[in-house]
Amino acid sequence: MTRGTTNPNRLRRMDRWIAAVHGAELRRVDDPVAVDLGYGAAPWTALELLQRLRTAAPRTRVVGIEIDPARVAAAKPYEREGLGFRHGGFEIPLHRRPQLIRAANVLRQYDEEAVAEVWSRLCARLAPAGAGSRGGLLVEGTCDEIGRRHVWVALGPEGPRTVTLATRLGSLDRPSDLAERLPKALIHRNVPGEPVHAFLRDFDRAWAAAAPYASYGARQRWIRAVRDLAADWPVVDGAARWRQGEVTVRWDALAPLPRP
Q: Which InterPro entries does the UniProt record give (predicted)?
């Protein structure tokens, strides 16, 4: 069971990214289901997820799943059309496979060695890929208490796809400040010799080189730094997302090296 901290708007960056990049996939389904896994001591994140996903896919339903029965009971009065709460965990106790599972700040207390098994278990519960569909999406990551800094991994039924870093640019000193919010699969690998360490090092260098753009605002500096970073790293999004204080990179470029 997590500590359950659920400040309102804490997960807004992740939610908006999901709506932007996965909205079309949700719209292809007649009755799309999204799961807020481990929503915590209060149901705010599930309510917000429903609101934000419905801007992109109005038929979306959200189910909040918690391992603590008392938290489920406390959330029941907030149920409404399109929103429900259930007791459960990584088994995802639904009769159908969801198009989305969001697991924010859930794996932070687990050992790194447990992550691959949890990912595999959750990915197996996603809606499968089909004609014209890449299948469901698992978004797993970590953020600070008020959602200013956030890093998450996006996975499909086949496994991890991308890593996204998202931040409130006005609070950023340098990109490597986001290292403390790396998800469990990466946070212990931010050491020399590991790809994620090299990525953050190069990002800091690009940020420093883009300092002249700071006179136009932190957003323009970030955009320039990411544009330079993309010359050496497989950045998969574009300026529309960079303007939001985001950058998304292919997972295989940052994946941890095998342990000796």
A: SAM-dependent_MTases_sf
